User: What shape does this take?
Amino acid sequence: MSEPVLSVRNLEVAFPTRRVTLTAVDDVSFDIARGEVLGVVGESGAGKSLTGAAVIGLLEPPGRIVGGEVRLNGRRIDNLPPEEMRKIRGRRIGMVFQDPLTSLNPLYRIGDQIIETIRTHSDISESQARERAIALLQEAGIQGARARIDSYPHEFSGGMRQRVVLALALCAEPDLLIADEPTTALDVSIQAQIIALLKRLCRERGTAVMLITHDMGVIAETADRVAVMYAGRIAEIGPVRDVVQRPHHPYTKGLMGAIPTTVGSATRLVQIPGSMPRLGAIPPGCAFNPRCAQAFARCRLERPEPMPAGQSQAACWLVAEAAAGARA
Amino acid sequence: MLAFAIRRLFEAAFVMVTVAMLAFVLFRFVGDPVNQMVGQDTSLEDRLRLRQELGLDDPIVVQFARFLGNAARFDFGISYQMKQPVTAIIVERAPATFELALAAALFSILLGIPIGVYTGIHRDSWLSKIFMTVSLLGVSLPTFLIGILLIYVFAVTLGVLPSFGRGEVVRIGFWRTGFLTVSGLKALILPAITLGLFQMTLITRLVRSEMLEVLRTDYIKFARARGLTDRAINFGHALKNTLVPVITVIGLQLGLVIAFSIITETVFQWPGMGLMFIQAVQNADIPVMAGYLLLVAFLFVLINFIVDLVYVRVDPRIRIYGRGA
Amino acid sequence: MNELSPPNRVIPPTPLGGGVGRAAPRSRLAAFLDSDLLHSFLESKLVVLAALVSVLIVGAAILAPLIAPHNPYDLKSLSLLDSNTPPAWEKGGDPRFLLGTDDQGRDIFSTILYGTRSSLMIGIGAVLLSSILGLSLGLWAGYAGGRVDSVIMRIADVQLTFPAILTALLIDGVLLAVFRSYRIEGNTSFVLVLAIGLSTWVQYARTVRGVTLVERNKEYVEAARLIGLHSFKIMFQHILPNVLGPVLVIATINLALAILTEATLSFLGVGLPPTEPSLGTMIQIGNKYLFSGSWWMVAFPGLTLALLALAVNLLGDWLRDALNPKLR
Assistant: This one.
């Protein structure tokens, strides 16, 4: 088994405020292999975007990494000096954000933005970079790329812009792409196109993908593995098929029950009562315990680590109980 | 766009007419024009004849119309104090004010923008803190105090720069310029700094806050995520986006420059229109006051009009296509 | 079981936040002492210093008749023999005159105290005038709408084409010229209050109008109208309280500007006369003697004015930032 492209171990991201320090990402660990798509799913505020920002080194102060490590192709990157980290961004790790409208500088032509990025990371001439940019845009599905390369962002539609954004993120051929809610701001009809494009481009290049979203549907379509985050922690992580069809963590089960589906008998949508705790008010023990119908004493006292559960891992004492029961 | 321009034109005209009315009231009814113009021992008949000549007994509306007509032809009457046509006086003094304003504007822009950029990028460095302190002084202290301080340091104590006047001027046609002589340039330094300091601090603060806001946008975040160098981000992307709104605001500052030139010219005894106005106020020289009023109003209205048009042209693209965040 | 906990599931109250039954609300004083406003104030030593300096200068000015060793306005007590005396610690100084005397024999220290007092009174007068005028016109324009609104706003727009200081200078100059032409013995203080006050009402009017427009459409105003309450009553009893907050903030910042404007006008020779000088007048007089070595005539008033200006500007800046909802 070759080395994973990305290896995150016990990552902790905290925000020191005047009164107390808030831990937004709490002891998160996962790997992403070459060419693999890992979905990171969870509610708003669960810490998914922050995890992505931490990996690429773009946490906004006062947020900082206070524990754990991030390794890219075996090499540690969370403690690099800024200039080293800059060279990695774009070249080894790419990132796309939610809103294609605001991701592009309105005063620069898109061709110039791509060429600039290419030339920042490799020493090729302007004309060569231009050819590469045109080819890339064509690959991204922009018709008439040769002419449109000199257009401004506002001359493109939303879906086209996101294609340009993808092209920009991938133009320096990174090993890992972090996609933070890439389809949330798009029309439903465009979403599928962009997801398909993302899959294709990354598969062709063997790029690993960390796909952050709150949309389980996108995950089910696109990801190979999925990590479910809750209150800054990983609740469950495993192959997509397993987690979706045979979830082990009560939270995951709740999420799956909440997805409207046209397949199968029409049952009521399950709603998980209560809401995810705010950062400063995370309960002791398992973060989900106040909302969990199956919580018992241990859940309120000890925090569970991800434990083997079928093909996946789930951070739930029920799994430990079941395993102990099975062994007995 | 055209409709907008026409509407602004009407509003501008309205302002001008209002100011003209005020100037007219000033001109005609504050003090008695005849008494102001002639000496003590002019006979009554001569006074009455003068009244007739000036048409001071015609209906008000006619007088106002005449006033407007004269103003349109740049005839503002005769100065009480200097017994010369107001227009001639203004023309004589205008070059001095114009050169001072130009020098001050150059100073404020050439220093203000780089300092603003620097303090925007390096928010917490000690150099930034020094700059911010100086800018705080520049914006808090009244202009005349700054002028006197500069005079004290550079003229009285160090004796390197003159404390009043324009130095030697070279005559080109009706224009008298101080740019072509060393003494002229030396005399320009302190007044230009005094006049431009306030504007410079405003520009610095504006550029800084624009920089800070631009640096928070999504496209800058995306640029960083692509690994662009700090240099490319700060001076390529951020600066370009910062300057666009700043340029339009600079235009609006011109109004303040004209206002503050009155103070600066008084401190440095600079023979420009501002000093002329102050002396007119002190001497109750109504024609000069009225003429200055009309001229300044016209300049303001013109500047505002142009800036509005420029802003509308530049703004929609930014407004619609977002600045991120 | 009250309505906050859901019917079927047991959700135990968590120790940290959430759940029912908090402690009684803290007193307003306690809330204020713990507030971010007070904290940001105390954290910035500079702002605290600025506040202290302001209080010191203003306090001294108010108490001028009590603490000043001489009365500089009493022309009969002045003696030309005392003129141009250096400060007490210099050679040729006189212990009677701590900071020296001006060209008329006035004690600089006393004149500073009395002069600041005059400036303060004029400033307060001007702020009262402009705030009351602006508030009334703004209320009227916002409430009545239509013609009244157009006219008032049109006047405001015309005035706004010019910087406030120019307007103040014009009004001041014109009134003085009028007085001189008709040989009226004018009260300069009154003219200054009028000039400065009339040059700054627009700010209040606009803000108040904005708030009034919002409030006017609210239901309680509708209700009041339906009951048949007179317009004035509605405006003053109901809308006015909402408007006082912003007006107060503007007034505080404008007080500083008013004092500085008065100083500028006095320096230009169209403010307080040499017989009853304010700081600005003193600087103008002293300016003439700068080269001949009598530096104290400019230095001390200048220093006082500078300190006052800096202090109120710092306070104003802090106030603006602290109350700006965008920055919170």
Observations:
- The radius of gyration of chain A is 21 Å.
- Residues 104 and 153 of chain A are 7 Å apart (CA to CA).
- The longest strand of chain A covers residues 21-32.
- Chain A has one domain: 6-92+174-261+273-327.
